[in-house]
């Protein structure tokens, strides 16, 4: 057993995307402020290097949050890991300000995230996938930590580590229509750039993009530029793309305070968040991309040379594949086939669901009447005393904490709340010299 395996960490993070990166920053800043009460943390990331939706880093695409909603500023405006610090370190502060925008390109924000992540390489194992959690075996008495089983990383084999707390942050899960498998000509948007770069594009005559969200609109625009000899079909279930509402009043649903309004609100209040404000994020597109696509379409009309086609009020139910032949089944009242060389499904994502990772431990986690995990206000899964540690969620809490759950908007504050919860629970446990059962703390939902 190596030294790392023998050690029991205070925190192990599963996944090292922006959410757990933000937690790493919060914990480091705690350790600087409270050197007598440090928290030990380690993170596992299955990608070989830090990467944030790399397959969608399309040229000119911009962030959907202002740069101030970086991994630290809303929790600690003086953090050395802010986006402004990054700009300063990279000599672009003046240039960025001259550019007069709140919304950097996704490429620049990715560079920023990589810059922050480069400070934490001693606390992250890349190429390391967590395959499950369990109760540690052996020892006498009730275990007080969780065992995390990992495949890959520096050792390349399987190993396990122990932690008093685990923070699950494994991200969104790509969603395809039922019964449609991905292959070399049928992709989900999350595979886009890697698959597109591999493809021989010379023979492409006709391509299709399914969906009417931000991913679909951005990929449609990109294909229109990148395969200038091909017909581009955008298959959209609505009559046209709908606008993402980022106006100031609506945008308040992503404020840190909105989490309390959602968490402690009535069922009716929570439902109102969804009924009135789902269009801040889902199945909607930014204004500039909508206008760009419409302008392209109109210019083609003027020139009498149309190759950008919008198939509206249409859904895709099936794809028939045979060799290079790809037929997409379109449904808009009647069913018809569209023959294409490539079909990209920008059909969205499912929320993070920790059940698979929890394995046998899931039986100790409480669920609500709808069968969803109960989660404390501090993002800790509500569990019985048999669970030998704390399991926190970053993501997968839309039913308890609201719309910002899967987004970047609140990650700095959320990570601070999780760090604070871990530190204060540890302090109370030390004082009491026994673990506090989860149902006696927080306000479970
Ligand atoms: P994220 O998915 O980024 O990270 C999870 C990490 O966990 C991944 O790196 C994954 O490899 C790793 N992982 C998964 N399972 C693992 C396992 N078993 N073991 C080890 N590692 C594992 N939101 C927003 O607010 N503003 C925006 O501008 C955008 N832009 C945007 C663009 C695109 C193309 C998409 C698809 C989504 C967005 N989003 C967004 C929403 C998006 O969810 C958000 O930006 C972050 O990715 C959330 O960060 P997380 O760290 O929670 O998940
Ligand atoms: P999304 O918003 O969930 O959109 C999925 C789209 O696919 C919807 O229009 C949906 O229509 C449609 N769809 C699903 N099944 C279909 C079918 N069988 N046939 C036809 N259409 C179908 O997903 P997304 O666009 O990937 O966005 C996900 C998240 O990533 C959002 O938070 C978004 O803001 C973010 N994002 C950000 C950027 C950026 O920062 N620049 C870029 C891309 C994505 P229905 O709603 O009718 O089912």
Mind explaining what this structure looks like?
The structure is a single chain. With 445 residues, the protein is an alpha/beta fold. The chain has three domains: 3-172 and 351-433, 3-Layer(bba) Sandwich (FAD/NAD(P)-binding domain); 182-244 and 281-349, FAD/NAD(P)-binding domain (3-Layer(bba) Sandwich); 248-280, no CATH class. Helices cover 30% and strands 21% of the residues. It has 14 helices and 17 strands. Helix 2 (18-33) links the parallel strand 1 and strand 2. Helix 7 (214-226) packs parallel to helix 11. It is globular, with a radius of gyration of 23 Å. It starts with a helix and ends in a 13-residue tail after the last helix. The model is unreliable at 1-5 (pLDDT under 50). The structure holds dihydroflavine-adenine dinucleotide and NADP nicotinamide-adenine-dinucleotide phosphate. Dihydroflavine-adenine dinucleotide binds at residues 14-15, 17-20, 44-47, 52-53, 56, 63-65, 129-130, 169-172, 215, 394-395, 406-409.
């Amino acid at each position: 057993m190596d030294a790392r395996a023998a050690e029991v960490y205070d925190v192990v993070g599963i996944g090292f995307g922006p959410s757990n990166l933000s937690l790493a920053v919060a914990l480091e800043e705690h350790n600087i402020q409270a050197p007598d009460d440090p928290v030990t943390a380690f993170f596992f990331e299955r990608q070989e290097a830090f990467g944030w939706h790399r397959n969608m880093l399309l040229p000119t695409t911009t962030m959907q949050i202002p740069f101030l909603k970086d991994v630290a500023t809303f929790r600690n405006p003086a953090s050395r890991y802010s986006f402004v610090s990054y700009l300063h370190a990279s000599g672009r502060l003046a240039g960025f300000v001259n550019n007069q925008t709140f919304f950097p390109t996704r490429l620049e924000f990715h560079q920023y995230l990589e810059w922050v992540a480069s400070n934490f390489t001693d606390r992250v194992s890349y190429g390391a996938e967590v395959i499950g959690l369990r109760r540690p075996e052996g020892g006498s008495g009730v275990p007080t930590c969780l065992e995390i089983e990992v495949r890959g990383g520096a050792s390349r084999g399987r190993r396990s580590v122990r932690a008093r707390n685990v923070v699950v942050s494994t991200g969104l899960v790509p969603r395809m229509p039922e019964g449609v498998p991905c292959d070399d000509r049928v992709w989900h948007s999350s595979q886009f750039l890697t698959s597109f770069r591999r493809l021989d594009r010379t023979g492409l005559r006709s391509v299709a993009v399914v969906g009417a969200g931000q991913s679909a609109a951005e990929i449609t625009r990109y294909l229109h530029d990148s395969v200038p000899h091909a017909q581009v079909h955008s298959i959209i279930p609505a009559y046209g793309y709908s606008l993402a509402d980022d106006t100031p009043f609506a945008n308040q649903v992503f404020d840190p305070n909105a989490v309390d309004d959602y968490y402690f609100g009535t069922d009716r209040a929570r439902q109102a968040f969804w009924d009135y404000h789902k269009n801040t994020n889902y199945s909607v597109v930014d204004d500039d991309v909508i206008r760009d696509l419409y302008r392209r379409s109109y210019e083609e009309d003027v020139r009498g040379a149309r190759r950008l086609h919008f198939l509206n009020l249409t859904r895709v139910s099936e794809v028939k594949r045979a060799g290079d032949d790809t037929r997409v089944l379109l449904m808009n009242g009647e069913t018809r086939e569209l023959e294409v060389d490539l079909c990209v499904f920008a059909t969205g994502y499912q929320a993070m669901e920790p059940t698979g990772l929890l394995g046998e431990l899931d039986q100790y986690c409480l669920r609500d009447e709808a069968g969803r995990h109960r989660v404390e206000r501090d993002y800790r899964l509500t569990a019985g005393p048999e669970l030998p540690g704390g399991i926190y969620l970053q993501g997968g809490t839309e039913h308890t904490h609201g719309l910002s759950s899967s987004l970047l908007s609140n990650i700095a504050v959320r990570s601070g709340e999780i760090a604070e919860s871990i530190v204060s629970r540890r302090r109370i446990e030390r004082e009491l010299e026994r673990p506090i059962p989860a149902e006696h703390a927080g306000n479970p939902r």
